[in-house]
Amino acid sequence: MQLMYGLITGILFGFLLQKGRVIRYDKQIAALRLQDMTILKFMLSHIAVAMIGVYFLYDMGLVKLSLKPTILGGVVLGGLLFGLGWGLLGYCPGTSLGALGEGRWDSIWGIMGMLVGAGLYAEAYPYLQKTVLTWGNYGKITIPQVLGINHWFVIIPFIILTLLLFRWFEKKGL
C-alpha cells in the first residue's frame, strides 16, 4: 500500500510541477538568474503546506518523525554538486524527469548525470563515510529543538514570512 501512496503522490507532484510550469527550461534559468520567482514560490508553498500537515498529524499522534542526521560536510558538498548540475543543465533532478515526460530530450543529459553520480557516490561512500560525512555531524536535530521552543513557534512565523515574500514578489512582478 505504501508503494501505491508513493505512486499516487508522485503522479500528483509531477502534475503540479507541469501545471506550475516549473519544469520549463526558461523558468529554471530565470530562477537561477533571479528574474522569475515562480520556482521559489512553488517550493515555498509546498514546504509551508508540508510543515503544517506533517506537524498537525504529528501533534495528533498519527505519524512519527523520521529525522536524518544533520551533517554539514555532506550538505555543503551535496549542495555544491546539486547547484553545479542545475546551473549547467538548467534542470534539477525532479524537473529533468518532468521535462523528459514532456518530450524534452535535452533533459536526458541530466538524468544520465544523476545515474553516473549515484554510482560514483556509491563507490566513494566508504571513503566519504570516514571523511566528509563526519564533518559537522550535529545528529538528528530540528530548528525548534535547537531553539528549545515548540515547533509552531517556527512554523507560524515561516508561513507569515512566506506570505509577505510572495506579496513582495507579486509587487515586483517576479
Structure, described:
72% of the residues lie in helices and 3% in strands. It is built from eight helices and two strands; from the N terminus they run αααβαααβαα. Strands 1-2 form a two-stranded antiparallel sheet. The longest helix has 24 residues, at 107-130.
Provide a quick synopsis of the model:
The protein is an all-alpha fold and 174 residues long.
Topology summary:
Layout: H1 2-19, H2 25-32, H3 38-59, E1 70-71, H4 72-89, H5 93-101, H6 107-130, E2 137-139, H7 143-147, H8 152-172
Antiparallel strand pairs: 1-2
Helix pairs in contact: 3-8, 5-6
Labels describing this entry:
single chain; 174 residues; mainly alpha; two-stranded antiparallel sheet; globular
Strand content: under 5%
Distance between the termini: 41 Å
Shape call: globular
Element-level helix/strand string: HHHEHHHEHH
